[in-house]
């Protein structure tokens, strides 16, 4: 337990009570397995105080009946858990000029609290992305743009025997890497100015493997956007542990 230097586990020094503005934990719905309502209920009843949000992943909600989606959302709300759409909006913009607006209205009717906008999958100009953010806010929901960090192999340090997230000696990097990260941050800042409530960063490329942890890039993003406005989506348990050790539960 001493490995968690931010918490003794003997004193209640964890995050503030829900609803929280920071230190938010969002759980994913299953991608490829059945979404059992009883399992979800068990999770909320046993450890609901630790869960702030539920995200429908991989377009799983598109295969469910509206009645079932509403039931899941109502269950989450009973435990003070917000519900996010996940990245599905990109499939709606192909339905015509009013496709995204209709999608926002339907999400509102079902009871969703947050609409996630996967910037990479949407593939729209920046001004269109900002318009989508404003449409979500006008619809009475929270907007959460989702960005991905991508690196070429030349930008990833070579492997070696080192602890997860250990310090890596600086090496010359391509200017393309710096430009990409700065461009992502500038676009995220504009989304926040347009009313976005949270910026989600897909951290797989910076934290998926122990040998390519890019603590410098993570620190740069947090330094510019702030901890309260940044959420990292890490699919690797080592990465999740690293984030908590470095930045604490909040």
TrEMBL record:
Give the residue spans that cross the bilayer.
none
InterPro entries associated with the record: Aldolase_TIM, ComA_synth, ComA_synth_sf
Q: Which Gene3D superfamilies match?
A: Aldolase class I
Name of one Pfam family that matches: ComA
Q: Which family does it belong to?
A: Belongs to the phosphosulfolactate synthase family.
Protein name (database record): Phosphosulfolactate synthase
Which source organism? Trifolium subterraneum
